[in-house]
From TrEMBL:
It comes from Cryobacterium lyxosi. GO terms for biological process: beta-lactam antibiotic catabolic process; response to antibiotic. This is Serine hydrolase. The keyword Hydrolase applies. InterPro entries: Beta-lactam/transpept-like, Beta-lactam_cat, Beta-lactam_class-A. GO terms for molecular function: beta-lactamase activity. The keyword Hydrolase applies. It holds the Pfam family Beta-lactamase2.
Amino acid sequence: MPRKGSNRVIVSGRDADGASAASSRADAVPGRSRHAAVPGGKHRTTDSPENFARGFACLGELALNGVQVSARATDLSTGRVLFSVDDHVSMPTASVGKVLLLIEVAARLNDAEFGLATMLERSGADAVSDSGVWQHLQTSRLGVADLAALVGATSDNLATNVLIRAVGLHSVRARTEQLGLSRTALLDLVRDTRGPDDAPQLSVGSAKELTWLFTALARGEIVNAETSARVIGWLSLNTDLSLVASAFGLDPLAHRESDHGLLMVNKTGTTTGVRSEVGILRGPRAGVTYAVSMVFDDARHMTRLAVLDGMRSVGADLLEYVH
């Protein structure tokens, strides 16, 4: 369960017109949103032209130089679209799709046979390298909640594979479809190498659906309030603030409490030629839900650095909006 203060970021209050957040739930479902008519392409929909100008310009420059860009930001309270860039496009999102696994795990924690303390053991078939710390620990068995916390904190690949084996990838897909997501999915286990018979990506997602998903988590509308709060709690542990969130000035290892009036939860995805982040940022003045994904030729280090600069620029605009 989240520690004190871990889910304070999710309180979105009431819409600007005084209606409860729950009353706009139907409008927030992908494909039925009040913003569903927004066409593809690049749009800056803020009332003030200064808002998001830097990030929008950076994303446009990256797109002109061959980077595939998809992004969206919405006001957390009202749902108003602040800007969008090809937000309907389904993009590779690397580890961002692990959020869907965490939702399925959190939803099952009330089952008698799958509680918080249920112990799961890693096996040779689960082994995978890269992100995460469990592969470096001596213990071979951990509780379900501990594994979910590792996924939230370090995007732990080994913990991810063990949890997928426990709940079944088919169950994660069924839950995803039940949520109404058609362009966002966790496609596979985490693999060190992907063969011709494997899914080409770990996950895919559209910025439009991802911002809806995180807004719904913030409002306690994914499965139920308890499930949503658990997922938000695990995500609040995330130590990767290297992308959009690099502009927020928060401590990567400790940002579950308000810091200069800021509260943030996020999930990132990183692999060769892919950088993706979805999150919620709340400040003294406003709150936003955002998603940014980029696919690029990773042969040149300068291209990667330009992508990171672009994501940070979006983050700087988000910070200005909420602070």
